[in-house]
Structure formats: C-alpha cells, structure tokens
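About this split. The held-out portion is used to measure sequence recovery: a designer receives only the structure tokens and must propose an amino acid at every position. Recovery is the fraction of positions where the proposal matches the reference. Here is one held-out target exactly as it appears in the evaluation file.
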C-alpha cells in the first residue's frame, strides 16, 4: 500500500502563503504539525510513502527524543518511541500544513544501549541498515551525537552504511546535542572535528535546554523537504508582477 498526500488540495498555496513570515517561523510552524503516523517492528511493515522522509538516528541517550520534541514543539511526541514495546520500533510522524502530508519524520531506535541482549542488537542493526539503504523515499538523515563523546564506533558504522547514498545526493546532518554542556572553545573544537568526519554532510550545534540551534536545524529540514519552494515563491512573485519566470533567481525559499 502506498500512502499519497491529498492532491485535491493545492499544497503550493500553503507555501506561498508563508512568504511574509520569517523563514524560521515557517519552518517551526511546519514542524509543529507533526503527528504520530505509524510504528513498525521491521522495514517491511512500513507503508510505502511518496513524500520525502527524514530519519533521526543516534546512540541511546544522545538526546534524539528531546531534539524531536523540541523541533516539533511537542512535549511527548518522540517519547512515544520510548513506550514499552516500541523502543525497538521504527516510528513515523507525518508533517504538513492544513492536514496535507508533505513529509515524514522517522524516529529510529537508539543504538548502543549496553543492557540490550547481543542478539537483539544484531537484529536491530540489520533492520536499521536495511532501512537506511533501501527506503526509497528517504531523502535526509539527521544523526544525533552527544559532543562530549563524539562520534562512536557505532556512529562510524552507520556513516559507512549511508556513505554511498550521501554520495548519490542523500542529505545528511550531524546534530551535536547538549551543547550547553560545552565551553565555547570546546564547542568550536568539536564542531570543526565533526565537520571533517561528516563526509560532505552538515554539522550544527544544538541545545534543547538553552534553545540553541533550533531555528537553524528547523530551517534546514524545511529546505530539504521543500526543494522547489524557492522556485514556486519566485514564480508566484513573477506572475503577480506579470513578468516571465525564466530569468528569476531560484533563491532558497527561506
Ligand atoms: P535519546 O535516548 O537519544 O532519545 O535521548 P533523550 O532525549 O531521552 O535525552 C537523554 C538525556 O539527555 C536526558 O536526560 C535529557 O534530559 C538529556 N538532554 C537531552 N537534550 C539535552 C540538552 O540539550 N541539554 C542537556 N543539558 N541535556 C539534554
């Protein structure tokens, strides 16, 4: 079964309406529409979707749930992923204004938790690798990393798994969480080290506690999911001015 967005509504108008709002307000308003969509223990239980999907991955305790809740401005959204029976599940959240789904956030279970039996760890690593390699509508990955630990061996394995897809154009962001725990010097240092390790991906400092980096991450995710928005906004402006869109600069829509 493929779930498609409701095409009977004009999604472009929702984008054009946003042109008077600041880019951060647009992005955060969009993320606030997040709703639980479905949960699945394995890849083949996930519905096929034809909207862009952005996956959140990271070690247990890296701050992934807090980051998702902060970005979506919903206290409990990602903590649903921590309910008994769901900790090893892939949890999907739909996004979209006016009830029209235009993207999906995927919360993949945290890895590296010592108390998990070895067999479960191996099974889970396979599910995750499978998801990251084969999920067709996956268009971006956000890797959460606690900067006090840096990228761990399991993070490096994940980077190896996704590298071919990143080289093919998959978007990739490393979020350095809990940055409030670092001094300025430490933050600058880990930022530059992680940029070297990110293999072409972006790296941002984030703190839910100090509300740092929220707007930057939100705007990046919005841009990933709306690559044509800049064109639509410019086309609309040109049409309103009665001129050709051919020479219009693309802008970034934000
Ligand atoms: P997850 O296992 O990756 O989903 O991690 P959680 O979101 O549950 O966070 C793990 C721990 O880190 C919790 O105790 C959070 O309160 C804490 N935490 C998360 N984000 C921040 C942050 O920005 N700053 C600080 N100081 N602690 C944080």
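Reference sequence for scoring:
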């Amino acid at each position: 079964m493929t779930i498609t967005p409701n095409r009977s509504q004009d999604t472009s108008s929702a984008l054009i309406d946003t042109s008077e709002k600041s880019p951060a307000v647009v992005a955060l308003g969009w993320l606030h529409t997040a709703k639980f969509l479905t949960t699945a223990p394995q890849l083949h239980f996930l519905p096929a979707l034809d909207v862009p999907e952005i996956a959140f991955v990271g070690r247990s305790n890296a701050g992934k749930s807090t980051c998702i809740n902060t970005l979506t401005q919903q206290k409990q959204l990602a903590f649903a992923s921590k309910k008994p029976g769901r900790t090893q599940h892939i949890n999907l959240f739909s996004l979209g204004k006016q009830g029209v789904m235009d993207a999906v956030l995927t919360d993949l279970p945290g890895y590296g938790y010592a108390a998990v039996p070895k067999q479960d760890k191996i099974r889970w690593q396979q599910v995750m690798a499978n998801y990251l390699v084969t999920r067709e509508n996956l268009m971006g990955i956000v890797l959460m990393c606690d900067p006090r630990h840096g990228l761990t061996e399991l993070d490096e394995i994940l980077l190896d798994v996704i590298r071919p897809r990143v080289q093919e154009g998959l978007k990739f962001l490393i979020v350095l969480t809990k940055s409030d725990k670092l001094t300025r010097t430490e933050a600058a240092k880990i930022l530059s080290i992680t940029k070297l390790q990110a293999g072409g991906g972006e790296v941002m400092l984030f703190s839910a506690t100090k509300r740092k980096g929220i707007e930057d991450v939100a705007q990046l995710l919005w841009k990933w999911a709306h690559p044509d928005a800049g064109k639509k906004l410019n086309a609309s402006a040109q049409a309103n001015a009665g001129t050709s869109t051919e020479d219009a600069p693309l802008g970034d829509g934000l």
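Annotator remark: Helices lie at 11-17, 23-31, 64-72, 118-134, 153-167, 184-197, 214-225, 229-241.
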